[in-house]
Amino acid sequence: MIRIKARAPTARGAVLPTAWGAAAVVYKFGCPLAEQDTFGARVVTSAVFFAVGTGLICHVRRGLLRELRQARRVAGAAQSVLLRPPPPRLDGLSAAAGQLSADRGASVGGDLYEAVVTEHGVRVVMGDVRGHGLGALGTVAALLGSFREAAHDEAELGQVLRRLERAHARHLRERSRRDHPAGGRDPGPPVAEEFVTVLLLEIGRDGELKALNCGHPWPYLLSGATVEPLTRADPLPPLGPFPLPEQLPAQPCGRLLRHESLVLFTDGAEDARDARGRFFPLADVLREAVHDHPVSPQTILRRVFTALLRHSTGRPADDVAVLVLRNERGRPGVSRPGAREGDTCGSAA
Question: How far, in Å, CA of 305 to CA of 282, rounded?
Answer without folding.
Answer: 10
